[in-house]
Design goal:
Blueprint: E1 9-16, E2 25-26, E3 28-33, E4 36-42, H1 43-49, E5 54-65, E6 67-72, H2 87-93, H3 96-112, E7 115-122, H4 131-142, E8 145-152, H5 158-176, E9 183-185, E10 187-190, H6 197-209, E11 214-217, E12 222-227, E13 230-235, E14 251-253, E15 260-262, H7 271-280, E16 282-284, H8 293-307, E17 324-328, H9 340-347, E18 353-358, E19 361-365, E20 368-369, H10 374-390
Parallel strand pairs: 1-5, 6-7, 7-8, 8-9, 8-10, 10-11, 13-15, 14-16
Antiparallel strand pairs: 1-2, 1-3, 3-4, 5-17, 11-12, 12-13, 17-18, 18-19, 19-20
Length: 394
């Protein structure tokens, strides 16, 4: 899939989800050329039109846009095993190595689970200046797409909040200069009573000046993201998963055109579980029925991409980014175009993700993250967590 080659790759699955939420297409495929989708259509037509292309046959699989985790905290992973520690305590103990190793581990698990893009509100000590660009470079090296921010907070001091805003400002400047081809920046600030209204006002001003999005972060399962001329919401149904109890909350949509995405909040790496929980907690404002499975799939892909302002991400149409995944459909019940979305939400899991491509580059094949020593990544992540807990003073 070279960006300089006229030879493309035809991906030929049993089913194609090119527009999430719309009826899947049986017997269709796509042509990937460089970083984008060059063409799509019935497989016999593609094979006739591009006889010199590489053929990637994916029988028993569905081809779909990759998941967009529209709200996560990559460093949350380091606290998953430290159940006796408060998050503020963890933040104070983190150092650069812990952050990098934890982010690396989180990226590995996200990729393996079919997540091709993330909306990251980084939680890390502000005594580590430049940590956000460091994380950006890590994400670029893993080949993923992201919209990044630093979660500025005044929990410890006014100066802490200003240092967080400075991280956001640096990231906005770097992205404006084209430093990171597949990463954009937004601004995030604590919206709770622990931080001042002045911090929130400064965050909004910084975002507007940079023509970027702004998130005022709360502890709710729903976050609002603002931008010039619009706003949307990201819903995190597993917000309290780390405490082994899902919150009593509802994803209530005011209409099909509302800009809404789904997020894991850094709680786990199986987006199928995020989607299932979102559907259980969902309804339209005007009714009591759960949202259709097809609508949930849209929120998990193109909805999140639109919310984060990612251009031509989340659909598999000609001219759009080749960010995609193939998913094994060896389910206990028959799969048809009519029941595909429902079957995916019922039986799907991260273990069924077979391949992942971001910007035309194959990153996962046959469920294996390519070019990565999985055992080594896990070992480094666990070592970082043990360093965290071992550094505590009784």
């Amino acid at each position: 899939m070279s960006t300089h080659s006229a030879t493309g790759t035809l991906i030929l699955p049993d089913f194609l989800i090119d527009i999430p939420g719309a009826p899947p297409k049986e017997g269709w495929g796509v042509r990937v050329l460089g970083e984008t989708i060059d063409d799509s259509g019935p497989q016999p037509e593609l094979l006739r039109a591009y006889p010199e292309d590489d053929h990637w046959h994916a029988p028993g699989q569905v081809l779909s846009p990759g998941f967009v985790d529209a709200h996560t905290h990559l460093t949350a992973l380091i606290g998953h095993g430290a159940t006796d520690l408060s998050w503020p305590t963890i933040l104070l103990r983190l150092d650069s190595e812990m952050v990098e190793r934890t982010v690396e581990s989180a990226l590995f698990h996200n990729l393996a689970a079919g997540v091709t893009a993330i909306g990251e509100a980084l939680q890390a000590p502000t005594l580590l200046p430049g940590i956000l660009p460091t994380v950006a470079r890590l994400i670029e090296s893993w080949g993923m797409r992201a919209s990044l921010s630093y979660l500025a907070c005044e929990r410890e001091s006014y100066e802490q909040g200003q240092a967080g805003l400075a991280e956001n400002a640096e990231m906005l400047e770097l992205c404006g200069q084209g430093e990171f081809p597949h990463i954009s920046a937004y601004v995030a600030a604590d919206g709770s009573k622990e931080s001042s209204g002045e911090l929130r006002e400064d965050a909004e001003s910084l975002a507007w000046d940079g023509e970027a999005r702004c998130l005022l972060h709360t502890e709710r399962s729903e976050q609002t993201i603002f931008w010039i001329g619009g706003q949307g919401r990201v819903y995190t149904p597993l917000l309290d998963w780390r405490f082994l109890a899902e919150p009593v909350s509802w994803l209530i949509l005011r209409g099909d055109d509302e800009v809404v995405g789904l997020g894991s909040d850094g709680s786990l790496f199986d987006f199928f579980r995020v989607m299932r929980s979102a559907r259980r907690q969902s309804r339209y404002e005007s009714g009591t029925e759960l949202l259709p499975a097809s609508h949930i799939w849209r929120l998990a892909t193109s909805g999140g991409a639109e919310l984060l302002g990612m251009q031509k991400v989340g659909k598999l149409l000609p001219g759009w980014q080749a960010d995609l995944q193939t998913i094994d459909l060896t389910f206990p019940a028959p799969v048809t175009a009519a029941n595909l979305y429902a079957q995916l939400l019922r039986y799907g899991s991260s273990q069924r993700v077979q391949s992942v491509i971001v910007a035309g580059k194959v990153l996962v094949m046959s469920g294996v993250v390519l070019g990565v020593d999985a055992a080594n990544v896990r070992a480094r992540g666990i070592a970082a967590a043990r360093k965290l807990t071992g550094s505590l003073v009784d």
